[in-house]
Amino acid sequence: MADTGAGGAAPVAGVMGWPVGHSLSPVLHGHWLDRYDLAGHYVPLPVAPARLAQAVRGMVALGMVGANVTVPHKEAVAALVDDLSATARRIGAVNTLIVGPDGRIGGDSTDGYGFMANLDALAPAWPTDRPAVVIGAGGAARAIVDALAERGVPEVRVVNRTQARARALGADLAREATAVVAIGTEALATALDGAGLLVNATTQGMAGQSPLTVDLAPLPADAVVADIVYTPLDTPLLAGAKARGLAVVDGLGMLLHQAVPGFQAWFGQRPTVDAAARAVVLAALARR
Length: 288
Ligand code: NAP
What we know:
By secondary structure, the chain is of the alpha/beta class. Helix 4 (111-122) packs across helix 5 (139-151) and helix 4 packs across helix 9. The strands form two sheets. Strands 2-1-3-5-6-4 form a six-stranded mixed beta sheet, sandwiched between helices. 36% of the residues lie in helices and 18% in strands. The protein is built from eleven helices and twelve strands. The structure holds NADP nicotinamide-adenine-dinucleotide phosphate. The site of NADP nicotinamide-adenine-dinucleotide phosphate (NAP) has 25 residues, from helix 4, helix 5 and helix 9.
């Protein structure tokens, strides 16, 4: 093991959240550091909202290489970095901070990348040339819709309880090649007609939340159903999709893949999302 960080010290990264104890990121990054035998540290950083700006700047003073950012800081931190990636600017949120050698702080959002990498890995034949339906218009939905538009999906139908939020998302993220259409929850069945992909990007179906009940009958037989909720892994939506014989993609892979770009930038090694990484995170979830 060689020390690779600034000043000869091993690189230090972490995750800023409030609270942060629930974050699975330290377990995942710790696993990859061990697995690739890298000198480095990844630590939970409890950062109160009032201290966020100090904490972000403090990374530079402490010689840290960067950090992940989680709830409730993802939006606020976008205004605190020196360089925002194009993706982060479009969706208005940051989950990965990278301190450059010059001390400038870059902010990126890798949730959309993580969603797409997981979808490509688990359902490589998903129909990219047909409309996609995204239920939800919160932070995760914005990242997913943006990634679908980046891929060139012709239409994204956004179905959300609060329609105004879906319309605002469409206004921000529609592109020349991708229409982003807000659709009321009462018209969900019509939205599913002809779709190639259905994504739950709401909190519905999470343990302790109301389930998401969708009549999947209008979905074509080759459509893929993805849920980004991962507690539980087998959500009511995915159980219903499996019962109908549809291909399904669970939410854990997105969590694993979104961590890849940060780990590579901080520790100099592109990590692999594999069964071992999935197992350590699943074990941590089971201990919660
Ligand atoms: P958020 O910004 O708070 O958005 C929540 C979304 O859920 C909104 O669209 C909201 O609708 C909707 N919603 C909440 N309760 C509802 C209800 N009872 N009925 C109908 N709609 C409801 O949250 P987020 O950050 O986007 O996260 C959403 C989910 O994705 C969470 O479960 C989170 O854990 C998960 N997530 C997973 C990953 C992963 O890596 N797998 C990454 C990020 C997030 P309104 O607009 O009408 O309020």
